[in-house]
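Structure ticket #2291
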Amino acid sequence: MTLHSTGYLYYSGTYGGFGITSPNIRDSITLQLDGYQPRTVPLDSRRENNYVMKMLVKKAASKEKRLMSVTRDLQFEEKVKYSFGGETYSSLRENDFMDASRFPFTDFAINTDKASYSNIRRFLNMGTAVPPDAVRIEEMLNYFNLEHRAPDNGDVFRIETKLSDCPWKPGNQLFFIKASAKKLDLESIPPSNLVFLIDVSGSMDMPNRLPLLKSAFKLMVNNLRAIDTVSIVVYGGTVGVWMTPTSGAEKEKIHKSIEELYPGGSTAGESGILSAYRLAQSQFIPNGNNRVILATDGDFNVGQTSEEDLERLIIQQRQKGIYLTCLGVGMGNYKDSKLEVLAKKGNGNFSYIDDEKEAEKVLVKELTQTMYSVADDALMHVHFRPEALKSYRLIGFDNKYAAISDTSSILEGGEVGSGHTLMAIFELELKDTTHTSSLAIGDVEVSYKLPGDSISRKLIEKITVTPEQFTSLPPTYQFASGVALFGSLLKESRFTKNCSWQKVYTIVHPVIKPDDYLQAEFLTLLEKAKKIYYKGKPSRLRSSSMR
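Resolution: structure written out below.
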């Protein structure tokens, strides 16, 4: 709600009630709510004001699409949606080079999702080519330790930029933006109200599904505190509360409840989510970390199976302060597209767990990143100066075809976890490629809200960079470039069609840290990809292996 006399933004209570202090007898206000028509109405302080908002006709019939990035003033043509076998992935359109004189502004969402990389690893370890739409380069970069640097003076974010030559396109430049979010003090982290919503349907009866989730949740429970509360809701053949709210200090009881889970029945996804949110609401902690953690292979086959119905429910709960984290497991009927959407609408994050090491990484080593946010609705806005460059291309942050073709699509910000580091990479065509001194190429702005706060905040940095040789960049930036190229080759990107897997090796091998397990594993996956994509013909391999 925006009060016109002051311009201040207010939020109503859970059930729509509000009270606003004003020196004016009469005022006016604009009401806005996801899925409803905005209304501008008069206010009279001498009486109770009641208003009814109308649902958008389009919203009632179809879901609102979410963009990952947007180039302002650019119109896209409609595309046909593509789906892949038994596993579903949102069909993506790779970002193009944009003329900086026509489109100097571009915006994209900041998030901590990492699911794409572990899912890619699962395919490569199986000796199978990766579906191109399963590759989301921004999530691949999120997966690695990009050398977090704490913000100064209590800021939420620290912004760093670099400019160097592009290793896969001579004459072009790579422009890096690294944003590091502040780390929460472990002693001051607010209490948590966590509801584990666990899929125990028949499809979860495989070693890499329910048994893996049991191990994952038990690892997480070991790190909970006495002030934290845990509940378990299950859905499958039956739906119900498996474990009532329990203190994090009662680890033996929680472990026993998790171990006794067993699979069977159909996937009553709608009923499970409703039960989990009701339980989370009953234990709601003001100013705490209230979160439902959905763990499933994503195969919702009973109840509200459409994404739009589930999204509407989750948006309502998000507005009440209950967030949603999604953990995906399994293969064959794994619904990446559905879990990704649910996590975004729930102001949460999305991870794919393919083994116990990944479970430990997500739920133990990176627990604060996964479960505790320092910023909501986070967006990065970049303004390029046309006098400095001809064109730019944002690598990753690709949009779904359906979202591009829908004029109602919006750019939503993401939730950023404690201590997260984001790396965004642009490929640039500069006007003067011989420039060697400091170059002002634009501005970077991060907009966000503090958790539980309605006030939008901004951090603005002027971009003045000195071009560097690629091999002179810090190792983190060189490694990130190799990961981006690796993802581009897996996507069969037209922008890197003349590159080879050996080029990725040449980029990353000199900067690999011997004691970094994940970087060493990356080299192993690179070797597997080279064999799978032998002679550059992954399409035939992919179609034959996934029938």
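Closing remark: The chain has a mean pLDDT of 84.
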